Amino acid sequence: MKTRNRNRLCWLLVLPAVAPVILTLMLIVIMALAQSVGLFDFGAPAHFTLQYWQTILNDSQLWRATGYSLRIGVISAVLSVALALPLALWLRKPFPGSMLMGGLLKAPLMVHGLVAALLFINLISWQGFINLGLLKLGIISHPIRMQNDRWGIGVIILQVWKQLPYALLIMSGSLRAIGDEIFNAARDLGAGKTARLLQIILPLSIQSVQVSLVLIFIGALGDFSFQVVAGPTSVFSLSQYILRFPEISAQGWNLAAVVAVILMLAAFVGAVVLAALAKWLQQAGEQR
Question: What is the DSSP track for 110-148?
Answer without folding.
Answer: GS-HHHHHHHHHHHHSTTSHHHHHHHHTTS-SS----TT
